[in-house]
Write a structure and sequence with these properties.
With 186 residues, the chain is of the alpha/beta class. It contains seven helices and five strands, in the order βαβαβαββαααα.
């Protein structure tokens, strides 16, 4: 049996390209998840690993889709080889249980880990540059602007939190925090 596995790291990323590639490869069953690759305990990945039997093939689009690091990739693939399971990485080809296949796997795993480390490094550099801006705020942007919050606070003078939330969509906790900030400034 041919099992496919697709993964993206965040909820905002799209699995569609990987899923299409796995369908094109005629996988009998495809597992997918939106889960960070830095965690070893990925539920769907563990599920597919538990189903694999001698003679089966595990198909992934890229090596970094199922391994956290070069060492992790090598360990996982060696375990699969010991169980008589084939591994097909679509952008590499069928990983063979031969000295040459293992060498290519080791090199490609190293490149995948290097690429991931470079992304992390560039992200940290970008963050450091952004923090130099006095208006920088870490975290997600505010859902409501200053005028919307002020309007909500004005409505609170004659209405309940629940009524203001129904009118503006601004939650009670957001209004309470805004009120607290105003009191701190006074």
């Amino acid at each position: 049996m041919k099992y496919g596995y697709a993964r993206v790291s965040t909820l905002h990323q799209d699995l569609e390209t990987q899923l299409q590639a796995l369908e094109k490869e005629c996988c009998d069953k495809i597992f997918s998840e939106k889960f960070t690759g830095t965690k070893k305990d990925r539920p769907k990945f563990q599920e597919v690993l538990s189903l694999l039997k001698t003679g089966d093939t595990l198909v992934v689009t890229k090596l970094d889709r199922f391994a956290r690091s070069a060492i992790d990739a090598i360990q996982i693939i060696r375990k699969l080889f010991e169980q008589g399971i084939k591994v097909h990485v679509l952008n590499m080809g069928l990983v063979e249980n031969t000295p040459t296949g293992k060498l290519i796997l080791t090199i490609m795993s190293g490149f995948a880990e290097f690429e991931r480390d470079m992304i992390v490094e560039r992200t940290q550099e970008g963050k450091a540059i952004a923090k130099q801006n006095p208006d920088f705020r870490e975290g997600r942007p505010n859902k409501f602007g200053k005028k919307q919050i002020e309007h909500g606070l004005q409505l609170l003078e004659t209405k309940s939190y629940k009524q203001v939330e129904e009118i503006t969509g601004i939650s009670k906790s957001t209004l309470i925090r805004a009120k607290k900030r105003i009191k701190e400034k006074e």
